[in-house]
Design a protein that fits this description.
This is Aspartate aminotransferase family protein. The chain is of the alpha/beta class. Helices cover about 40% and strands about 10% of the residues. The structure holds pyridoxal-5'-phosphate. Pyridoxal-5'-phosphate binds next to helix 6.
Length: about 475
């Protein structure tokens, strides 16, 4: 063995401890670590001619990169939809890295990681109050979850038209219907060869909403004249967290032949609160559901899962099968994830999820979800009462979508956003809603507290002051 590698093996304990210590410095100071940093792009950095092992790699990292790590997993990073990592999720994730299992088959030749994945999926179904007639698995994010679900949907649609798409490729008509699909579903359609511009768009209830108009949806279905199709519906849109009417879609599913996919990447967590669970009522009839774990479940990246009705198991295996003779019997008998989803070799992604679910349960997550929503509403109230800002949409759940009053010059919105983000205490992202330039703040972090909202409000006022010169 290489000399330095041999040395590192001898001091493995202290090496791992030093990495953990470094991580703890970050975690214990996360409230003060900036939400954004300025840095210069580095070129021409070479590998060392005489490498010195893990300790020196850590030294170089500390010297060059430590201070550039932003607090994206902290309490005031409201950009995109960015979760954090609960203590137990971190424990599970660290162990997943250390055990380094290749999670594939439940047969388990010494590796039970796939069995634990099965268990985690069962627990999640219970967690979200979904029936147990779904199978599921873990992928890297909601984008891949949408891809997986829509991949099975594609196989279903092909079969309805007498084609085995997995074998012969995409030919003929593939009707996909949606109102406000997330960009990642559009990307998934592109990757699946279904075409990102082939979506049959249905209007929303009215221009100020992002939920599909059910009457117009039924009209669009009738216009298809009995052709089967895929419906992509929203269980929480990113701009305004609007939900399609799941009950009404479940009704339509009784009358018409379609594959119903729900993207509930973060909106699915509404199921945990009796106050908001009604938004999802009826979703248990969907053929497939996407939910992210690295958002509101607060598990480290890259973590998401999908649920597909067990009755579609054969279509799913047809789509993703890797070996020649996939076993289709009892999934617990000899199930192999490599025939069931895009990846072949896979990390032990279920472990952090399992840890955090066991540690905090429905009760703990209901508290996080309801607190995030209350805090979003509180930030919304500040905006409504402010002389500078206005909401672009009501705060329906955990996201505040707003802009500057009197949109005379849309550049002011960007200037304001830049000023807020440059302050390093809070991070938000730009959006466009109803043709107006706006800003989104999405709250899905377990740490966020009342105090953080007051800090954010103060930062927003400071930023208004900073751009005053631009305004007048
Ligand atoms: C975040 C998000 C996605 C994409 O998720 P990734 O985890 O970034 O792949 C898809 N749909 C919705 C509704 C989202 O919020």
């Amino acid at each position: 063995m290489d000399e330095i590698l041999t040395k590192d093996l001898k001091v493995l304990d202290s090496l791992l401890q030093s990495a953990l210590d470094e991580g703890l410095l970050y975690l214990n100071d996360i409230d003060n670590i900036p939400t954004s940093v300025e840095f210069e792009v580095l070129n021409g950095v070479d590998l060392p001619l005489t490498p010195q092992g893990g300790a020196s790699a850590l030294d170089e990292f500390k010297r060059r990169y430590r201070d550039l790590m932003i607090s994206s997993s902290g309490p005031r990073y409201f950009g995109f939809v960015t979760g954090g990592a609960t203590p137990a999720a971190l424990m599970g994730d660290i162990l997943a890295t250390i055990y380094d299992q290749n999670t594939q088959t439940t047969k388990g030749h010494g590796d039970v990681s796939a069995l634990l994945e099965f268990e985690a999926i069962r627990i999640l179904l219970d967690f979200f109050d979904l029936p147990d007639d779904y199978l599921g698995g873990f992928v890297t994010g909601a984008t891949m979850s949408n891809f997986t679900c829509l991949g099975v949907a594609r196989q279903w649609l092909g079969r309805e038209n007498g084609i085995d798409v997995a074998k012969t490729g995409v030919t003929g008509e593939f009707n996909v219907v949606s109102a406000v699909p997330h960009s990642s579903s559009i990307k998934a359609l592109a990757m699946l060869g279904l075409g990102s511009s082939n979506i049959i768009k249905v209007d929303t209830i009215d221009p100020s909403r992002e939920a599909i108009d059910i009457e117009k949806l039924e009209k669009a279905i009738k216009a298809l004249d009995g052709q089967p199709f895929i419906l992509i519906s929203s269980g929480g849109t990113v701009n305004t967290v609007d939900f399609d009417d799941m009950q009404a879609i479940a009704e339509l599913k009784r009358k018409y032949n379609f594959w119903w996919h729900i993207d509930a990447a973060f909106g699915g967590f509404a199921a945990l609160s009796p106050k908001y669970a009604h938004l999802l009522e009826g979703w248990e009839n969907a053929d497939s559901i996407t939910i992210d774990a690295h958002k509101w479940l607060n598990v480290p990246y890259e973590n998401a899962f999908f649920f597909v009705k067990e009755k579609h198991k054969i279509l799913q295996v047809e789509t993703f099968q890797n070996s020649n003779a996939p076993y289709l019997g009892d999934p617990l008998e000899n199930f192999n994830y490599l025939n069931f989803l895009p990846e072949n070799s896979r990390r032990f992604r279920a472990l952090p999820v399992w840890f955090t679910l066991k540690a905090y349960g429905k009760h703990g997550y209901r508290e996080i979800v309801e607190r995030n929503i209350e805090l979003a509403q509180s930030l919304g109230d500040f905006i409504v009462n402010s002389e500078f800002f206005e909401l672009l949409a009501p705060v329906r759940l955990n996201t505040v979508c707003f802009t500057l009053k009197d949109e005379l010059d849309p550049h002011r919105t960007q200037a304001f956003l830049d000023a807020v983000n440059d302050g390093g205490k809070v991070f938000m992202t730009p959006t466009v809603y109803n043709d107006r330039k706006g800003i989104r703040a999405a709250l899905v972090n377990w740490r966020t507290a009342e105090m953080d909202i007051r800090i954010v409000e103060n930062e927003m006022l400071i930023a208004m002051n900073k751009i005053a010169a631009l305004l007048f």
